[in-house]
Specification:
Structural class: alpha/beta
CATH architecture: 4-Layer Sandwich
Distance between the termini: 35 Å
Strand content: 15-25%
Number of strands: 11
Order of helices and strands: EHHEHEHEEEEEEHEE
Largest sheet: 5 strands, mixed
Oligomer: single chain
Number of helices: 5
Number of domains: 1
Amino acid sequence: MGHAIWLLPDTHFNHKGMLHLCGRPHDYEKRIDHAVKTAVQDSDTLVHLGDICLGGDQEVHDRYIKQWPGKKILIRGNHDKQSVTWYFRIGWDCVCDYFGLEYFGKKVLLSHRPMDLGEAEVNIHGHFHNSGHRRGEQDGVPRTGDHVLLALEWMNYHPIQLRTVIEKGAPRGKVTNLEVE
């Protein structure tokens, strides 16, 4: 059994506004939980690209996150308000605001929001979802074809392997000027 790195953006547990903001189905939390437990193996790493939940942090972690297999890395998003110590205590293996790695020949920057590439070749991020409800936040953010938006709504509420994103792009394609091609 190999080691895979899985990416999961913007789960937004306990955020019922996602039903109308992004058109999520009423059972999206159960879909995400089932997909993670089905795809991720104990030998794998799951990188959450931020925005775990909106309130009920302890309950969400007890119900979902603690049950998920593999090593867990959290890249904090704008809704992840607990202290780093709290996240470590609750079971995350690594907590950061962003990180870079070289994977399958690419220098990759993983973040919640799009960032300047620096020395990276590609920035894989979440935050903007599928609906454009955050379009007003795009002023001043990077606008290159080397930024890949992962929107859980486009991913059928499943994690996706980092290798797949590097080799094929995001499920709906690359993001150029923060618009889907």
